[in-house]
Design brief:
The protein is mostly helical. It has 5 helices and no strands. It has helices at residues 9-17, 21-42, 45-67, 75-93, 99-114. The longest helix is centred in the middle third of the chain and has 23 residues, at 45-67. The two termini are 27 Å apart.
Length: 115
């Protein structure tokens, strides 16, 4: 089986069409976790810093979205997600970031979005 690449835009488009918007959002968290796993496997300070930065950017966006007054999620859910985002962002900024914690939070959000 051949991997979907830029040389197969029709295959990539077909893949995206089979996914709901929530599933596509879940995939962003899955990709963020992939960067964590690869960085931990490499034990490269540069890869770990990149994974932390990628996750920080992801959770900055999440926080911005749930803080937006136009967001239509129920207020209690928005508050819970904002609290989670703050916790993950604190961990991303920590000198000794717990990448396992960040990964678990990514998994939890991806799982919720996928359903």
């Amino acid at each position: 089986m051949q991997a979907v690449t830029a040389s197969h835009p029709d295959a990539a488009a077909a893949y995206r069409q089979r996914r709901t918007p929530r599933q596509m959002e879940a995939e962003v968290f899955v990709r963020a976790n992939r960067s964590i796993r690869e960085a931990l496997a490499e034990q490269s300070p540069t890869a770990i810093a990149r994974a932390r930065a990628d996750n920080r950017r992801l959770w900055d966006v999440v926080l911005g979205l749930v803080m937006d007054p136009a967001n239509q999620l129920p207020a209690p859910l928005r508050s819970q997600v904002a609290s989670l985002a703050h916790a993950v962002l604190r961990e991303c900024e920590s000198e000794q970031a717990d990448l396992q914690f960040i990964s678990e939070m990514n998994d939890a959000i991806a799982g919720g979005l996928w359903n």
